[in-house]
Amino acid sequence: MNARPDSVRSARDLFGIDSDLEVPIFTERGDYVPEIDSAYRFNPDVTLAILAGFMRNRRVMVQGLHGTGKSTHIEQVAARLNWPCVRVNLDGHISRLDLVGKDTIVIRDGRQVTEFQEGIVPWSLQRPVALIFDEYDAGRPDVMFVIQRILEREGNFTLLDQNRVIQPHSHFRLFATANTVGLGNLSGIYHGSQVLNHAQLDRWNIVAKLDYLPREEEMKIVLARVPGKDHERGRRLIDAMVSVADLTRKGFAVGDLSTLMSPRTVITWAENCEIFRDPATAFRLSFLNKCDDAEQPLVAEYYQRCFDEELDESYVHEGSESAGSSTS
């Protein structure tokens, strides 16, 4: 890896943002640089927040509902800066040893010896790497305290196992994504999310909120992912699909639904339309079957409003009682 960025580009040229920011970049792409996704659409405010993290070594957390592209947003910014990037998906099974390191047995000169193997945190700290903690609020709170010190700018990291203090590389960067900002599973849809310590959350310098894209932008992304629909009839179909998704999000916001359709699901629905050649069948297999039985009639109504046709009633449960009878 290059030790540091060796050039600058304007944010306007790289991301089409109305800003005069000059952003540091690497001229050469390394092994850890994400691939550029030309179809990705950048949110200007979130992009500026992420760029502040890269430029000024700020700790940036991106919060939002599932499917908004939080992790991808950070990766795609890094891709255009040619900045090495490592993404760690947190869960309840990630331990301190996974992050810090542990002693392992290796073969040296034909003999078994014990050797300390660095975890992802000390490995990243010593390199010009952007480390992303994905689903930060899914990590165990006691384990997350491992990174407490490095959340502070220029904060050193102590390896107790080796009595060694690691000073962060001048171009090490730290990011995180979260659904709940450490408040736990308040909405009921993010099981496994933890209530995190607010003294630690307070150490994140910037918290950016990423919402779903405007309708026109979401349509462009779906068409970019499924270019076979990029014709007049296909665009009308995608427009109706995004309309259904928007209704599910509004229904979720007012408490009518416990499940919403993310942009990721809309893309999956469009891809499945290419397979099954029927929007209704693809809709059932992509989203409707994920919904609670009692909520399926409302979701079917959303479909009818946008497509002006009824879903096959045999596939829509009218509540738990009819669901039980159909099963029997």
UniProtKB/TrEMBL annotation:
Pfam families documented for this protein: AAA_5, CobS_N
Species classification: Bacteria, Pseudomonadati, Pseudomonadota, Gammaproteobacteria, Salinisphaerales
Ranges in coiled-coil conformation: none
Protein name: AAA family ATPase
InterPro entries with a match to the protein in the record: AAA+_ATPase, ATPase_dyneun-rel_AAA, CbbQ/NirQ/NorQ/GpvN, CobS_N_dom, P-loop_NTPase
Ranges of residues in domain AAA+ ATPase: 56-202
